[in-house]
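call fold(seq) -> tokens
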Amino acid sequence: MPATRLATFDDWVDLFRVWQKDIGVDYPEITNYQFEAKFGPTRSNEVEFGAYKGRPKWDRVVQIPDQRMRDALMNLIIYQGDTEFASVEQQRKLFQTSPSEHDRQSLCRVVTEEMRHGWQMCYLLMHHFGYSGRVEAQKMLERRAFDQKRLLGAFNQDVNNWLDFFVYTDFVDRDGKYQLTMLSYSGFAPLAQSMIPMLKEESFHLGTGQDGIKRIVKAGVVPTNIIQKYINKWVPVSLDLFGVDRSSSAHWFYVWGLKGRYDEPNAKAEANLEFMNEHSRALYHQECVKLVNMINKNVPPGHERLYVPDIKFNRYIGEHTGKLYSVAGELLSEKNYTEYLKEMLPQPEDVLLVSEIEAVEKQWIAAKGMIQ
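ret:
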């Protein structure tokens, strides 16, 4: 890593190439990709909500009328960018075990687009936030998920196998869809414009995950209870990513016109500023239920159906933090809870079993095009 701070975006690009090599994803189909910042048209040229509703969106940071707003905006960009690079680090080892060439190419596309999304956020930092932005863009490439240094705990967890990857992209990347959508309404025009191409690319990641889980279920080789454990792993993590309950930050993001509700264009009621994170989290949970119902159409006869764990299960952020709820939302005793979690979440022996199945069973996942 360079001893001195970056001065130009070209300096950052050089560090980006070092990062690719350092984490082991410098495959030709990735390094040959033409990385660039992309912008799309926003729904409106005016701020759409909050105290500045109806005023022109800000094209430059200096136009934003309050330093607290500028700081909050930069933090939103930093956290979004950090998740993008972290997800690549989490998925970096999967190239060696791809079940098919189709899946390898899908993985290449997913990680390449996640890199581009991180590139986009660093472009904004470097071009709009002066020295502080350059420092944060450099830090983005110095943290490592596998060293537990990423900003959000979900992005320091391991993605151990392809089942893990498909569940991750279906549910964690779906939270990403929600975050990008909420930022697409931002009053800072360059951020809102960045979200349009990012959302189009993100849709492929979600489809990769949903399609992959369906194919695994269709094959009927990986035990259903193991698949369920991975859903139980990533859905609570994704729910946590919406942030704390009764969040003062989410309150001010909205008041300042920086981040809207997921359903902002269609929301008929006024925003409840005390429950901003809870509002979008509930919509996300409802969508997950629909997704799992679609997956269940591919469950072979005689196999257990999958489900979405209760919104209170295994939460580390919000009012349910540390509370002993079951996957059905029932309060359990402290005496039995540790053993209960072992039954509900992937254990080392489960990781080993899935890895062995993926290595030995040729038909552990159905071919593309064989699902409902």
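The chain has a mean pLDDT of 96.
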